[in-house]
Amino acid sequence: MGARTTTLGALLAEAAEQRPDLAFLTSPDAGVLTLARVHAAARSVADALRRAGARRGDRVAVALGNGPNLVVTLFGASVAGIVAVPCDPRLTTEETERVMEAADAALLVSERHHPLAVSGSAIVRPLGGPDVEPSGPLVTVVRQTAIEARGAPSADQERLAGPDDVALILFTSGTTGRPKGVPLTHRNLLADARAVAEAHALTPRDVALCVLPAFHINGLVVTVLAPLVSGGRVVMPRRFDAERFWGWATTHCATWFSAVPTILSLLLSRPAPPRAAASLRFARSASAPLPVAVLEAFEERFGIPVIESLGMSEAGGQVTSNPLPPARRKPGSVGIAFGNELRVVDASGAPVALGEVGEVAIRGENVFGGYLGRSAGDPDGPRDGWFRSGDLGRLDADGYLYLTGRKSELINRAGEKIAPREVEEVLHRAAGVEVACVVGVPDALYGEAVAAFVKLRPGATTTEPALAAHCREHLARFKMPSRIVLVDDFPRGPNGKLQRRGLVDVYRSITRNEGAPP
User: Fold this and answer.
1) Is 410-514 the same fold as 8-393?
2) Backbone φ and ψ of 441, nearest 5°
3) Can you tell me the distance from the alpha carbon of 489 to that of 503, in angstroms, rounded to the nearest whole number?
């Protein structure tokens, strides 16, 4: 399904025409929506956005959490030819305004209790009724002057969106710097959704359990658009809940789910009912490096193959993936390219030899054209069609990619370059470790030192000295963490990704309180 469609709105319309009664979207908390109802609700949102003053090509911020309202609002923007700017609804007023200013968005779609919601705004109730989120989202005119000052729409502004028009603007998570706006066209998003469906052999029999936020690229493209392309269904709780996860999977006969490594670790730390995973044919891991120890423990305990993948906002979601069984999966690798070209290059952009570490570069229909507000010659954008991702890795003879870290995350200890992932892999093999994260911290003697932060599994009694002893057995002396800190949790982004910059701030706070030099 969807091979000939060129926009998200057209994809939804085609799906609703072919299978109107398919129960496409299930919310365990709110109810079920058929494809016909999703399509009708999206058209209702499109009409409301137009009434509020939005035109084709305008940008509208969407601050909604997981659920039917978010899905139909994103599709509704597409139906109207409007650019959606998904925002985490947990952002503060100041943070939301900053995103809207950066994206030049004059409208906000939010729940009625959002701090920026304006009294008297147009109420959209596309999902009215007792069974599915009856309150509906709120369309708020945040910058009225910008809407009123434009005059009558031109003929060009009245036409429908095309494949090369921007559909979404996503902002990077900003783990290592200031978030950047990533405009993605309908062509980018549909190309990647089709690549996900191909990589995971998705069929109309599949049911995706969406436990990642759909206002981020992984949740949206992988577990909403790819099932729509392949004719499958989606189960979307409001948020991930380790206590309810297996119940959702069993009740709704989920066949796969996409997660971040932290979610797999959390599921390993909690009991699961017998045969909880009977319907699941695979688990997908992306958005952050998956420790091999976590992959092996998950597969051994639950009997579910874990498919490690590489994704990024700039590529519309997925870049590489391990194939499904019985094809070969390689633990520690993020797999082979699907739907795009991939190579590993040196500083000049030339491909390096097989097995040599370099920067991962990608090219394809799914890859964006450049960051928001940047010129065509922006060195951070694609060059000659190739986007240099900032990820470091190597290719083996079979085309499988192994990541070694981010250029910006390499720790420079007196000239020795240390990849945090190598140290994290060692820590994850230690008994009792649920999550480990390694960062470079300021050091007066070496410039940077290695610091490790570890969260233990419930009931574990491992100590910092025991973890240090474990590291000494498996790491060269210069790679040893100078400090191992046990923490209750980590600073995280909304998609569960660990925020490394936040850990550097934690380290500074610890040393400051101890009276040591920061």
Assistant:
1) no
2) -125, 155
3) 11
The domain defined by 8-393 folds into Rossmann fold (3.40.50)
- The one-letter code for the residue type at 208 is A
Output DSSP code: residue 13: H
d(CA 430, CA 478): 19
Q: How many CA atoms lie within 13 A of 220 on its CB side?
A: 29
- Residue 252 has which token pair? 């709704």
- Say whether 394 sits in a helix, a strand or coil: strand
Distance CA 433, CA 422 (A): 15
Helices 35-51 and 68-79 meet at what angle, rounded to 10?
60
CA distance 33 to 42: 12
Residues 6+ apart with CB under 8 A from 291: 261, 424, 425, 428, 436
Q: How far apart are alpha carbons 103 and 138 in whole angstroms? A: 19
| The predicted structure's pLDDT at residue 132 | 46
- Could you say which architecture CATH assigns to the domain 410-514? 2-Layer Sandwich (3.30)
pTM recorded for the entire structure: 0.83
> CA angle at residue 12 from 8 to 14, to 5 degrees?
115
Query: Around Cβ 138, how many Cβ atoms within 10 Å?
Result: 24
CA distances from 71 to 126, 330, 515 (A): 12, 34, 50
Under 8 Å between Cβ of 193 and 168: no
**Contact criterion met (CB below 8 Å) for 481 and 448:** no
380-385, Cβ contacts within 8 angstroms, sequence gap of 24 or more: 380/180, 383/349
pLDDT tens per residue across span 231-281: 999 999 999 999 999 999 999 999 999 998 889 999 999 887 777 678 999
Of the candidates 396, 379, 292, the one whose C-alpha atom is nearest the C-alpha of residue 342 is 396
**How far from 441 is each of 275, 418, 420, 453, CA to CA, in Å?**
44, 12, 12, 12
User: Both tokens of residue 376?
Assistant: 């065509």
**pLDDT, tens only, 288-299:** 788 899 999 999
In the numeric block, which tokens belong to residue 405?
Answer: 């870290």
Name residue 344's beta-bridge partners. 360
Positive/negative CA dihedral, 73, 78, 82, 87: positive
Where along the chain do its domains lie? 8-393, 410-514
Residues in the chain: 518
Axis crossing angle, helix 8-18 with helix 68-79, rounded to the nearest 10: 110
Name the more confident of 172 and 312: 312
